[in-house]
Write a structure and sequence with these properties.
Strand content: 15-25%
Largest sheet: 7 strands, parallel
Helix content: 25-40%
Number of helices: 16
CATH superfamily of the largest domain: Glycogen Phosphorylase B
Radius of gyration: 20 Å
Low-confidence stretches: 1-11
Number of strands: 16
Distance between the termini: 34 Å
CATH topology of the largest domain: Rossmann fold
Strand order of the largest sheet: 3-2-1-6-7-8-9
Shape: globular
CATH architecture of the largest domain: 3-Layer(aba) Sandwich
Number of domains: 2
């Protein structure tokens, strides 16, 4: 199972009274960001709960995102979709990778014993079917938190990879069998008996002025944040960016450390500034549509220029959400790759920022979890 525990700073093992398991898909950082938002809200309500996080999303992500203690179990609990690039999926490679966790019942056997040994009172899954399988074997109540499930996503690729049909059918039995299903907006496929909550996102911690000071960017210069949702992208248009001297660009480029090139700041995957703070401070976010980036832009009242993902089933629901809630610009993929989008962003930068919403679905999920634990 890999390293069995990670103890957050300030962790007091003697204070543990309740353990819950949290299984998180490592498909990008979106599911982890959503889970971190829920866990932060839950920790604020019940600090006696110490989550057991089962995922291959790296420990540093949880360190940076959570303000509460947790135990970390480095376990592959999901495959999701293997991608050729942040905006191109690989169904055949996905099917091959899925053999590592199939059949789910067999792969979940050791995990179920871990839940029993840790005396977990509840298992929450976003959106790991293996976690649901482990909870069923262990006799632990389960909550599924989702805006989509993999069985539904895989249906879009049956023609390209027919073998995904059997996988989808197997996973559907576990998704449909969760003791409670929570759907967070924007939802791709509503389910009649699910509890629906507003969009879930991590909360910003710093003001825009504080972020600008940390980045060394003057207040009057617009910030354009370029992100492909936790996946590095070989930006071929950096020289073009440096020609736009009136703008300041911040881009996640997979560098080993922060690197400044004129008016462009390249950041490593582990950002030195909390990502929701960056998004809220930015005047414009440019990149792909991903759940956490979209909802954190919504929470920050940030403008959004995005590359559509027509082949990915979640893409249209996210695009619709952004069009309805934020000043938006849609970028053709070829224009994005070539950097020609720089000619298009002036208009969207001139549009007023929307008000920031006061709701966060993470609070509602935390209330649901507490009620379940307290027997309500």
């Amino acid at each position: 199972m890999g390293p069995p525990f990670f103890f957050a700073e300030g962790y007091d093992r003697g204070s543990v009274t309740i353990r819950i398991a949290y299984f998180v898909s490592p498909h990008g950082f979106g599911h982890a960001a959503r889970s971190a938002a829920v866990l932060s809200s839950l920790g604020a309500r019940r600090p006696d709960i110490v989550p057991q996080i089962f995922s291959t999303v790296p420990a540093w992500f949880w360190e940076d995102s959570l303000g509460t203690s947790f135990d970390y179990h480095q376990v592959l609990t999901d495959i999701g979709l293997v991608q050729k690039s942040p905006i191109e999926e690989d169904p055949a490679a996905t099917l091959r990778a899925l053999e590592r966790i199939r059949p789910l019942a067999a792969a979940a056997a050791e995990l179920s014993r871990s839940l029993q040994r840790l005396e977990c009172r509840l298992a929450i899954c976003d959106i790991s079917p293996l976690g649901l399988a482990a909870a069923r074997l262990a006799g632990v109540p389960s909550i599924l938190v989702e805006s989509f499930t993999w069985d539904w996503i895989y249906r879009a690729y049956f023609e390209a990879e027919p073998g995904l049909r059997a996988v989808a059918e197997e996973m559907a039995s576990y998704f449909d069998g969760a003791d409670l299903r929570v759907q967070c907006e924007p939802i791709t496929r509503p389910v009649s008996d699910a509890r629906v909550v507003p969009p879930i996102c991590r909360r910003a911690r710093s003001t825009a002025g504080e972020v600008r000071a940390r980045l060394g960017i003057d207040d009057e210069l617009p910030i354009v944040l370029i992100t492909m949702g936790g996946t590095s992208w070989p930006f071929g248009f950096l020289d073009r960016l440096q020609e736009a001297g009136e703008l300041r660009f911040v881009a996640f480029a997979g560098t080993s450390e922060s690197e400044r090139r004129g008016n462009v700041l390249l950041l490593p995957d582990r950002s030195p500034v909390f990502v929701p703070d960056l998004i809220a401070a930015a005047d414009l976010v440019v990149g792909k549509l991903g759940y956490s980036t979209v909802t954190e832009a919504w929470a920050g009242g940030t403008r959004y220029a995005f590359v559509p993902r027509p082949s990915f089933p979640e893409g249209e629901s996210l695009a619709t959400f952004v069009r309805e809630r934020l000043p938006t610009l849609e970028l053709e993929r070829s224009r994005f790759v070539g950097g020609d989008w720089l000619d298009d962003i002036t208009a969207v930068l001139g549009r007023p920022r929307p008000d920031r919403p006061e709701v966060n679905g993470a609070d509602r999920v935390a209330e649901i979890v507490v009620a379940r634990l307290e027997g309500a």
